[in-house]
Amino acid sequence: MPVKTKRPFALGMILLAIAALAALVVAIVLLIGGISGLAMPHMTAPDQIRAVLLDDTWAGYFDESHTRAEQEAFLASTLDEAAAQGANTVLVAGSVPGGGVLARKLENAETAPMVSESDKFLSSFDPIRILMQQAAKREMLVALYQPEGVSLKDWMTETADRYGLTLYALSGEGVNARYTAGEQPELVLAQKNPALAAAVCQLQPGTGVVLGSLSGLVNGEESAAVTLQYLSGDGLPDIAQQQFSQTLAIVSPDPASKVYTDTIFLMGTSDPSQPLTVNGQEVERYGSYGMWGLEVSLTEGDNVFTAQQGETTASITLTKPAPSTGSGSSGGSQIVSDGSVAAQPGQLLRVTSTLASALSDYQDTSTISMTAYEGAVAQVMDSVSFVNGTTRTYAYQLPDGNYIKASDCELLEEGTAQAAFTGLSASEENGIEYLTFAGSGTPYYSHTWEDNEFTLHFYSATFSGEFPQSFGFVGTSVTVEPEENGFALHITFQDSDPLWGYFVDYTQEGGTRIALKHQPAIRTVSTASLPLDGVTVLLDPGHGGDDMGAPGSPVENFPQESELNLSAALAAKYRLEQLGATVTMTRDTDVFYTLAERMEMLNSQKPDFFIAIHHNSAALNSDLNQVGGTEAYWFYTEGKPLATALSANVSLATERNDRGPKYSAFYVTRSNICPAVLLELGFVSNPAEYESCATLEGLWAEGGAIAQAVLDSMPD
């Protein structure tokens, strides 16, 4: 019988051993080679990227003081912290502060020392790969970014290609700075202006947002919650989007009007892609839509100005009359009386204007010390006759030394009784504390308010009877003391529950009660909360109806100030409501209300904030291309922080000049019930700023900035 051999079996075993050895070698190579031999986790980009930056503070963790196990745990916790902030993407700079990058085996950069030193036998430490794997488990995305102020490096592109990551590079400056990456969606920077970033995302579908640096968000230096609230709506509601004609035209001033100044500012429309001249002079345009303006000189008679683009021209003729020489009469204007008379000693007067000014100097309307509301009664200490223009009138001195004009009040019959109160009671209504006087009368008053010490001085009035030692404010103390011309009600508040505003209300029954507002409290800011929950805001879009306000141009089909005011207010209302505020408006359509009616709305609603929204203009006898910016007006000191925040935030969001907070006695700012401010968003007499104010992007930037200013004005 032939002898059987074991060669085929032995050969098979040898081949299996070789295959096993080859597999082991491949595994070792893969482990040692790291990422180059492994497939990257597949991650699908979300519908909208909401990213956090892993900046130098984050990268600084990779140093010699941390073990590899600690660093791997740190990478996992990074994704959890980012997700807790509402992010679905992390952006990695890729380098560490001490030098080197987090990627391995690059041709154009050295691997960070700690990354190399963390390698184990048959295993390499690759932070970017680990981060990608952890992100894939959480359905998150990893991308690379070029840090601000750092030029694009070759190793950044190499790393992006190696790991299959999108590389974002910073472009633009200021609030327009954003990260771009070829055909990938833009990422706007929320930490520069959350409301504006949200507006860009919502106006440009697909655009993503950078919520901030992870270290800044975790440490509370930045807030992702506010940005997320701004992004919470399904879409922006419709507001009046304005269209700009790009047909060559001169739209301002009105050629039918005569011009008496030596210069005039022409304003018009044009094709922004073509050069423009006026009477041969090249015109520089500062905006994007072809609006233009040019200061020109005038001579007596007819002045013809012709704008030209290519073969197209547009002309206007402005007439400057010769100076009038006058003809004869040298006697001047006749002084006439307005019918007012001197008061009898001790006679009472009653304020008849909705708001009257108590002036320290009766001939200077800027010297307002207090506001006297309609119905206030006071004893006249002195009567002063003076001439106002061509009218002889009277001013009456009040018990506090200030004066009120005769046109704002009426003298009461002799024997009219002064206010007499026989007690004081406390109550609460809709979160507002009320102190109501027993007895009758509506006395004139003034106040002093320093920190938590608050005193109301009631003049031409008496008080007797009981009063509450404390009421709805925590830890208050109340005293009533007689004074020479009346009495003083003094209240001391506590830091834990301070006074926010007050209003003395004269009731229809002829009595007096005091409304006292608690300070609004900001809610805890988290991804699930509304920081302005419980806060009330009254927005007052200026002008309306037949009152168009400041003209962007005299042409009817151009948006005028009243329209822009309403559109900006509607945008602000939407943004404020996204943050949780309750918002009302004096008007939400094209109607007109008097200043008195607007003040009545303010005093009856008693909001936490009041903002009158306007747009500015300047005289046409200068170069209005150079006159622009945002400013806000306050009267009582309590309104100054809000005015400051409004001007600064609108300036930031729109990149307009911040003209700052300004003191002025505008009618609608003279309220003590809450911070009350008149905001001038921008100059419609400046062509480029007019474009900014009338575009959809500009209006949403303004609205978001107003909301941000209210949030910034909330007390700590």
UniProtKB/TrEMBL annotation:
UniProt cross-references to Gene3D superfamilies, sorted A to Z: Immunoglobulins, Zn-dependent exopeptidases
Cited InterPro entries: Ig-like_fold, MurNAc-LAA_cat, N-acetylmuramoyl_amidase_3
EC number: 3.5.1.28
Any GO molecular function: N-acetylmuramoyl-L-alanine amidase activity
Taxonomy, superkingdom: Bacteria
Enzyme class: hydrolase
MurNAc-LAA domain boundaries: 599-711
Protein name: N-acetylmuramoyl-L-alanine amidase
Organism: Allofournierella massiliensis
High-level lineage: Bacteria, Bacillati, Bacillota, Clostridia, Eubacteriales
